[in-house]
Design goal:
Oligomer: single chain
Structural class: alpha/beta
Number of strands: 12
Number of helices: 13
Low-confidence stretches: 148-153, 161-180, 374-379, 399-403
Mean pLDDT: 85
Shape: elongated
Largest sheet: 6 strands, mixed
Distance between the termini: 36 Å
Helix content: 25-40%
Amino acid sequence: MTPRSETRSVLIEADGGSRGNPGPSAYGAVLKDAGTGEVIAEDAQTIGIASNNVAEYSGLIAGLRLAEEFAPEAEIEVRMDSKLVVEQMSGRWKIKHPAMIPLATEATRLAPFGTTYTWVPRERNKHADRLANEALDGKRSGVTVAGGPPGADSLIEEVESPDEAPASIQAEARGWSGATGESTTLILVRHGVTVHTTEKRFSGGLASANPGLSDDGRAQIRATAEWLSPLAERIDAVVASPVRRTLESAEILAEVLGKGIEEEPGFAEMEFGTWDGMTFGEVAERHKADLDGWLGSLDVAAGGGESFRVVETRVLAGLQRVLDKHRGGTVVVVSHVTPIKTLVTHAVDAPLEAVFRMELTPASVTVLSFFTGGREGKDPRSSMRMYNALPPGIDPFASATRW
């Protein structure tokens, strides 16, 4: 990648950590366009056995080297959650530890005149912290430039509003020109696993037995929440189905993202009536005729509960309420298999029968955008930006007992 001479100012977010202090250490650094927030490049490396402070300085140096390579003429602001590094590089604290002196000297050499240093709370430096941890976990090593292998920032790219680009560019890039006007983006998250998920039992909505998340389910959702955390500033709210497993998932997401929770009953799971809590085999044994009538049907109610048509009406009513309230924004919606698949068929203008041909992994992310305008004389348009995605390193085909 050639240097971006048109970039006038950049942000460096850097961090480092040691598991043991001293212990196995790594750093993470990300270079962003200060005007747009666009990621230009990232670097994440292990550095052997070192202290936290050495790892943090190493992250700063890596970030400055990214700026030197990819934005050599730009003004630089460095943001770190290390008070020590920020105060020392700002000249307010003396550098006394012998190990810090050569690192600070190298950072000073790389930093152009006028570079500023800003301390930020840890929760605002999650991108760099994640990179450092991914390096320690063996998931990442070296420099990645924008447009390289997909990672967490490909998620950001998919969620960012497409109406920032001219319509002609959108059409060329996406092969579709129906989406125009202001967009509202839904980041749909399926809840984590429960005991019913792992035992493959029917688990319905508000009228069901409502098991809570298992330990695995909580870990899954926390991993997804951390993956979404770089988007926190773009997200307006977390909206949840008022079912126990989705509310528990929403609480974890809201905590990590720093948002409040709104409940939307339209996004609750299908009601399975008398089948609730039973396995597929148990239903086949006890209610074979009813099951045969339900399989592949959109109009037959499951166990006397709800049909897919009834769920569709309820889900789309909930969708409209969310679009009306959060028009032009980005919302995390925590829901279930049937409502999420229903929203996908609606967004891509597919027949509702398509729900029978989709699979959705626990704690997965699906991204849909809905636009206020469309082609002249047509209904407003929508698009699917991502489907059934999971944090890097998680196998989407693994069994439900894992993910």
